[in-house]
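Structure (tokenized):
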């Protein structure tokens, strides 16, 4: 900074500081000065209005006004001035922010002027004499017009006209939905001085509104006119204000809007509208999941609450995308204690801080550890004795597991077995495995490992139900780890543990899903990589999947594989193109789509059930039960021990061993 300028700036700051202190000492604020001036204005114009009425009554000749009328009017001025200030103050007319004036302020002005008019008529008649009719009429009309005009001058003349007539807008806006929400949004845009937006038109499917105006903005037509309106008005941004629209209706609308290349935002839902929380700042970006058009998934919150409230709940992999959402929803159902168990401390720390700030009364414990470590698991289960375990810890990246198959077996299969053993040992009542549709007729090692996890769960449920703990092998993997079988021999198992698995498909926004990858590729300018133009997948949002997992857990009786109905499958190619359009680009023009070919172990489509499995319905139409496939559980336990040895020895032929155990596994290469 220039040294010569520094004393000047310091002097300015010093003077500014003194002025601020002076204002604080006096206790006077800017709005109070304005209110004082406004009160003075009201007194002057109100009394002048009635004097003008008297002047008009006698043909605008002052000399013709009888002295008795003039004396009465002048003597009543102090009294009427006091009435004006009292009544207007009682109506908060000196505390309103007039740049936001609306019909409520107008109603208060009408009320205040009516009361003061009655005071004028009654007061001057009783105290002095009855005045001519024109005196009252002109007085009332002029007073109302002048006191109202000054207050709405900025609101209607300066603010509205400047926003509608200036051509220096950075964005031109279309609002879809010419109802109350759209009108509130329009007003909020007019008030947002820092946002240079011009609302050019409304779109609404109600023909009765077409070719009419809302506060000067035309309702151009219905949804079939969206593309025409965008071209005519050169629209940059589309705001969707239809809080009562169904998901299917919103999807159909977005299918049209995404072809415009405009930025799109929408009101989150009916809740914001009912609470009056409709504003430009509350509009959310349109996401790909909005294009799926699925109605909100309904779960029985009472059943979930009853199953979790007052229970000690452990979530393995609690820092991951699925695990963390499990923790969020469990925290909202009043558990006695929530335990997050994860090997990655960064994720665990993030969800810990979030839950602490959101649920201040939550009894939360966050522990670092691996599901491969028997001693760590046993110490956790022995200390906290969880009633319910949600096992979300897993390796799930298909291509990575194809190059490291032994790690998939160690973490997914052996980790599930060790966690399930600890649950049985220390009296856990329910164990819920998070599985995947890739376990059905798997073509990759990750899917095969999850099918093995399901078989572990089915076996553990049988062993727990029949009391056959002697069948359990020791899969420690390290000589110095605790022998799980010896734990059972030294402890009587009194609590029956119910083991179930919940199987669902791809989760939008989860770690490793295609959406984050596509967004990164679009941000870099492309290309967006799709493995195959015909590849399809089932999709569900993270909150939807977790809600159904919690609901399925309430139906558990032991040994079931619950299958979530994920709606219609979606082409990944279509998903990529829609995401490009939502970002305001044209597929294959602005952002190229590149087909890379199927990766090792990847299928064109995923299945939710095996051919051998049947389906049973549950109370929730989106949750089904797959009947377990029979297999020799005793032989499986022996095979599991061989599989553990092969994985810890990093056997390069481990896929062959997996294929011997999982008959439906058809690897792309051995």
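Design, position by position:
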């Amino acid at each position: 900074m220039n040294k010569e300028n520094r004393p000047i700036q310091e002097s300015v700051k010093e003077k500014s500081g003194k002025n601020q202190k002076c204002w604080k000492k006096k206790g006077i604020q800017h709005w109070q000065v304005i209110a004082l001036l406004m009160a003075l204005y009201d007194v002057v114009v109100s009394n002048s209005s009635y004097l003008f009425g008297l002047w008009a009554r006698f043909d605008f000749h002052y000399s013709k006004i009888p002295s008795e009328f003039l004396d009465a009017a002048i003597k009543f001025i102090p009294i009427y001035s006091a009435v004006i200030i009292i009544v207007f103050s009682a109506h908060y007319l000196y505390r309103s922010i007039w740049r936001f004036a609306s019909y409520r302020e107008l109603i208060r002005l009408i009320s205040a002027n009516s009361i003061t008019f009655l005071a004028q008529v009654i007061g001057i008649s009783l105290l002095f004499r009855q005045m001519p009719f024109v005196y009252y009429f002109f007085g009332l009309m002029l007073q109302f017009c002048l006191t109202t005009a000054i207050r709405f001058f900025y609101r209607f003349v300066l603010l509205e006209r400047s926003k509608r007539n200036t051509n220096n807008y950075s964005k031109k806006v279309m609002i879809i939905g010419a109802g109350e929400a759209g009108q509130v949004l329009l007003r909020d845009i007019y008030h947002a001085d820092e946002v240079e937006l011009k609302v050019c038109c409304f779109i609404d499917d109600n023909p009765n509104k077409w070719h009419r105006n809302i506060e000067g903005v035309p309702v151009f037509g219905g949804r079939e006119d969206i593309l025409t309106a965008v071209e005519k008005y050169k629209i940059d941004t589309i705001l969707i204000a239809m809080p009562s629209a169904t998901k299917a209706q919103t999807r159909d609308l977005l299918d049209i809007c995404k072809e415009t290349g405009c930025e799109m935002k929408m009101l989150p839902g009916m809740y914001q509208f009912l609470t009056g929380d409709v504003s430009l700042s509350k509009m959310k970006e349109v996401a790909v999941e909005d294009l799926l058009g699925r109605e909100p998934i309904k779960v029985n919150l009472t059943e979930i609450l009853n199953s979790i409230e007052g229970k000690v709940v452990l979530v393995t992999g609690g820092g991951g995308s699925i695990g963390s959402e499990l923790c969020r929803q469990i925290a909202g159902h009043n558990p006695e204690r929530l335990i997050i168990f994860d090997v990655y401390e960064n994720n665990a720390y993030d969800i810990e801080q979030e839950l602490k700030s959101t649920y201040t009364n939550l009894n939360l414990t966050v522990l670092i550890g691996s599901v491969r470590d028997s001693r760590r698991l046993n110490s956790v289960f022995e200390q906290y004795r969880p009633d319910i375990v949600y096992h979300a810890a897993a390796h799930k990246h298909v291509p990575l597991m194809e190059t490291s198959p032994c790690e998939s077996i160690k973490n997914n299969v052996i980790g599930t077995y060790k966690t399930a053993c600890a649950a049985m040992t220390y009296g856990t009542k329910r164990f819920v495995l998070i599985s995947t549709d890739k376990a059905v007729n798997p073509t990759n090692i990750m899917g095969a490992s999850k099918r093995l996890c399901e078989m572990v769960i089915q076996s553990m449920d049988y062993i727990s139900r029949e009391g056959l703990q002697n069948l359990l092998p020791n899969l420690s993997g390290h000589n110095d780890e605790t022998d799980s079988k010896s734990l059972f021999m030294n402890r009587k198992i009194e609590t029956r543990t119910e083991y179930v698995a919940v199987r669902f498909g791809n989760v939008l926004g989860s770690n490793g899903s295609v959406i984050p990858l596509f967004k990164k590729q679009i941000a870099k300018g492309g290309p967006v990589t799709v493995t195959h133009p015909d590849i399809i997948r089932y999709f569900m949002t993270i909150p939807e999947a977790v809600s159904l997992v919690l609901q399925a857990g309430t139906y558990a009786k032991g040994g079931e594989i619950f299958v979530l109905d994920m709606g219609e499958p979606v082409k990944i190619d279509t998903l990529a193109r829609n995401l490009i359009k939502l970002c305001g680009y044209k597929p294959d023009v602005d952002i190229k789509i590149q087909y890379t070919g199927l990766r090792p172990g990847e299928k064109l489509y995923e299945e939710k059930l095996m051919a051998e499995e049947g389906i049973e319905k549950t109370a929730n139409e989106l949750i089904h039960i797959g009947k377990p496939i029979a297999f020799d559980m005793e032989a499986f336990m022996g095979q599991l021990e061989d599989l553990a040895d092969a994985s810890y020895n990093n056997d390069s032929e481990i896929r062959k061993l997996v294929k011997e155990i999982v008959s439906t596994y058809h690897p792309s290469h051995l």
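Reviewer-requested clarification: The chain has 22 helices and 22 strands. Residues 1-26, 269-278 have pLDDT under 50 and may be disordered.
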